[in-house]
Design brief:
By secondary structure, the protein is mainly α. It contains 3 helices and no strands.
Length: 69
């Protein structure tokens, strides 16, 4: 039978090693670079997109109603 406590301890130790290693710094820097790159792009959030999509659907319905008159 496998000793689950051993694996839990090893997992905790590995997590500590990674948290205190240069890999954590690399991840943090990569995230900052990506965030900076995305900030330069003209992107909208999913929420903004959905709101605009709803507004467009209403406008299309109004336009269709006006055209049918």
């Amino acid at each position: 039978m496998l000793n689950t406590k051993f694996f839990e301890e090893m997992s905790a130790k590995l997590s500590d090693v990674v948290a205190n290693s240069p890999a954590k710094d690399i991840e943090k820097n990569a995230r900052a670079l990506m965030a900076q790159g995305f900030a330069k792009l003209d992107l909208v959030s999913r929420e903004e997109y959905e709101v605009l999509e709803q507004r467009l659907a209403k406008l299309e319905a109004r336009l269709a109603a006006l055209e049918s008159k």
